[in-house]
Each structure stands twice: as C-alpha cells, then as structure tokens.
Specification:
Helix 4 links the parallel strand 4 and strand 5. By secondary structure, the chain is α/β, with parallel strands linked by helices. It is 44% helix and 14% strand. The longest helix has 16 residues. The N and C termini lie close together (9 Å). The chain has a domain of 125 residues: 3-Layer(aba) Sandwich (Rossmann fold). The chain has a six-stranded mixed beta sheet, with helices on both faces.
Length: 179
C-alpha cells in the first residue's frame, strides 16, 4: 500500500491514477494532520510525501513518523524552492528525494515516483532473483527471466488487494483508498 500526501490536487490525482493503474493500492489521508496516526494504523509500505505541505510541514511529518517507529519507506517530493531542506529531511529519515522538472512548473512525472518505489524493493528483488536462479539451475542467459519473475513476485506483494492489511480500527472516515 502506498500513502500519498500532497496539497496539490492535480499531483495527487495523477499519482493516484498512475499508481492504481499499475496495481498499487493507494491510501490518501483526508487531512495532513492525520498522516502519522493513519500511517501507524494502516502501515503503508511507502509514503509519498510532498515537502511543500504546511501545517504540519513535511519535515515535521518525517520527524514524527520516524520517532513513532514507522519503518516503511518515505519518498519525498521536492523542488527548487525547498532544495535547502533536502539534507535535513534525509537526516530525519526520508529514504529518497525526487523533484519536479526544474523551472518548468510542470507537474512531477508519476513515472519518477513509480521508479523510486521499485528501487525501494531492489534488494528484495535481487535476493529472490538469485534464489530463483539457483533453484532453477540456470546458467548465464536465464538470469533476466529470474529477475523479472522476482520483480513480479515482490511488487505483487506490495500491490493490492491488501485490504486485510488495514486494521479494523481504521474507518472509512479516516482515509480514502484507491485501488
């Protein structure tokens, strides 16, 4: 499950549409103030967090998430106006920072977000691919098949339907889910 947190409706809708289209279950907190509580209850694998948000700001949210023990990945969306905050957000526990196309004012490409999410699971994919390679007795040439199979299996685990991964205490009023 992927949680998307941004104040930009166009970006939020683009990410929801793209990630849902690729099979991810997407969780959107109804208010920015609900991010930390909802993350504790729903335990998303990845939170895509816009550093531009305010009240609370992106830095505060990362700090709170990590202090509350959130172990999932945090992907930060940033641009040139918050470039000076990037070292701080990484120090606080963000896993990766990506940015909108510089100076164009164009929205973030959803492909960047999906590529970053895939990179978060690279080590798991690599380990499973090696295991499949060994189990199948492949020699050189079959390793790409094993890699793609491992990627498919690992990413499938991260995708919907994960409806049972949200505890019963999380109500429909607390979140908006897209799948």
């Amino acid at each position: 499950m992927i949680m998307v947190v941004t104040h930009q409706p166009q970006l939020r809708n683009e990410l929801i549409e793209s990630l849902s289209l690729h099979g991810y279950e997407v969780l959107v907190p109804p208010h920015r103030q609900d991010v930390c509580a909802l993350a504790q209850e729903a335990n998303p694998q990845v939170i895509v967090l816009d550093l531009y948000i305010a009240d609370p700001n992106g830095l505060e949210i990362v700090k709170r998430l990590r202090s509350q023990g959130f172990t999932g990945r945090i992907l930060i969306i940033a641009g040139t106006s918050v470039r000076s905050s990037v070292p701080e957000v990484l120090r606080l526990g963000a896993d990766q920072v990506i940015g909108s196309p510089q100076g164009s004012g164009a929205p973030l490409m959803s492909g960047q977000v999906e590529a970053a999410i895939r990179s978060f699971f690279h080590k798991e994919i690599q380990a499973l691919a090696y295991k499949l390679f060994e189990e199948r007795g492949h020699t050189s040439g079959g390793d790409w098949e094993d890699w793609f199979e491992a990627e498919r299996q690992i990413l499938k685990r991260q995708m919907s339907p994960h409806h049972d991964s949200i505890p019963a205490e999380v109500t429909d009023e607390q979140c908006v889910r897209h799948s």
